[in-house]
Design goal:
By secondary structure, the chain is mainly alpha-helical. About 45% of the residues lie in helices and about 10% in strands. It is an enzyme of class 2 (transferase).
Length: about 200
């Protein structure tokens, strides 16, 4: 529950301590645990409590868009081959609209699949500055160190739950209380060692 500089994470607007991965949403006007983003289409924040539901929404919306495109395209092609009458523009528009939505949703779904497998949020993937480390032990400027990445399988289970037959059903079985998170032990120990080296006078050249 501390920042990179060691200061505690505190929300001045809510007047509460902020656990790791918690951010204040200016639209919802409250702190959201494991906040991913504020979704204007759903008029709600996506975070720890509803990340699975949002991900399932993306998957089913993608499949539905493809279904609309294909079920519209196939009869239109057959109709066009069997008649000389011009096809209604509404059908063409529906096919194009379904195709565009399908492609956009596929990209969005793949992006959030990657976030789940790497145990990141959209905000964390954009900021990437909470925990950093360099080869020489400097933790101020370097590559991003994701302490919450505990492997693809465990990352997936944290969000989707341990029972595979509930993965694609909107049933809340995600792990965690939204305040504390399992850490990658190797990366955490590496970070601790680097901090100790910085505080050790014998390591200063």
């Amino acid at each position: 529950m501390v920042k990179q500089n060691g200061e505690r994470r505190f929300c001045n607007k809510c007047d509460i301590d902020k656990p790791d991965r918690t951010h204040h949403c200016r639209v919802c006007k409250k702190c959201i645990s494991k906040m991913d983003h504020h979704c204007p289409w759903l008029n709600n924040c996506i975070g720890h409590r509803n990340q699975k539901y949002f991900y399932l929404f993306l998957i089913w919306a993608t499949l539905y868009s493809f279904f609309i495109s294909l079920t519209t395209l196939i009869p239109v092609i057959k109709y066009a081959q069997s008649t000389i009458i011009e096809i209604d523009l509404n059908w063409t528009f529906l096919i194009l609209l379904g195709g565009v939505f399908s492609l956009c949703l596929v990209g969005f779904t793949l992006f959030h699949t990657n976030l789940i497998l790497s145990n990141q949020t959209t905000l964390e993937s954009l900021q990437k500055h909470n925990y950093k480390i360099k080869e020489d032990g400097d933790v101020t400027t370097s590559k991003y160190l994701n302490l919450f990445d505990v492997g693809n399988k465990n990352n997936w289970i944290q969000v989707m739950g341990p029972k595979w037959y509930f993965w694609f059903i909107p049933i809340g079985n995600s792990f965690g209380d939204g305040k504390s998170w399992p850490l990658n032990s190797y990366r955490y120990s590496t970070l601790c060692d680097s901090v100790e080296n910085l505080n050790d006078p014998t390591q200063i050249v």
